[in-house]
Amino acid sequence: MGTYSLPDLPYDYSALAPAITPEILELHHNKHHAAYVKGANDTLEQIAEARDKDAITPTGLVGLEKTYAFNLSGHVLHSIFWQNLSPDGGDRPDGALATAIDEHLGGFEAFKKQLTVATSSVQGSGWGVLAWEPLGKRLVVEQVYDHHGNVGQGTTPLLVFDAWEHAYYLQYKNVRPDYVAKLWDLVNWTDVAARYTTATAAS
Asked: What is the value of pTM for the model shown?
């Protein structure tokens, strides 16, 4: 039995249209996310098999660890992404999260611009992320390359925007900024605020 499993979406495949078409959402969830889940489970089994056979070598382990990190991070970020979106989303946060955005990121509009640019301009495939950084006890915006490169150590993702081509290309072609603009209309701020509360309570 695998350690990881593909989560169900909290809405049906047509719920986020027209911002995200049913075809793209189904392919994204049922094919791409599912592949990361399978990849993480398969790589864990390969690591365990090598360990059981006393066949752990520096070259082999480095490749397996990198593959495991890539697939597990893809699974984690996608699992957050689905919950971050809602057909009833949009607008802006309030309460403690809004106060923290004002304090750490210069207000909502400045934060929105920063995350938009971070997502739109990440080189190749990657993500734009609003995260809690526990050492400095502050919100930060990060660019994530692929799924796991260039991530602040120990940061907790709160809001993630997927900038991989599989998330938008069938609908938006190469105009990634148009796709990112539509994501703001879907943000589930209740979910983001709950993640913020949990992250700050743990730090």
From this structure: 0.95
